[in-house]
Amino acid sequence: MEFFKDLKVTYKAGDVNNYSGRKTPLKNQYWYQNIKIDSLENIVYKDEKRFGIIGYACDEGVRRNFGRIGTKHGPESIRKALGKLPIHYTNKTTTDYGDLICVENNLEDCQEAFSKSITELITNGILPIGIGGGHDIAYANFNGINNAIKSSENNKIGIINFDAHFDLRKVKTQPNSGTPFNQILSKNDNAFYFAIGIQQQSNTKELFKIAKEHNAKFVTNFDCETFTNQLKNKLKTFIQNVDYLYITIDLDGFSSAFAPGVSAPSAFGFSPLFVCNVLAYLLKTKKIISCDIAELNPKFDQDNTTAKLAARLVDYIILKA
Question: pTM of the predicted model, to two decimals?
Answer without folding.
Answer: 0.97
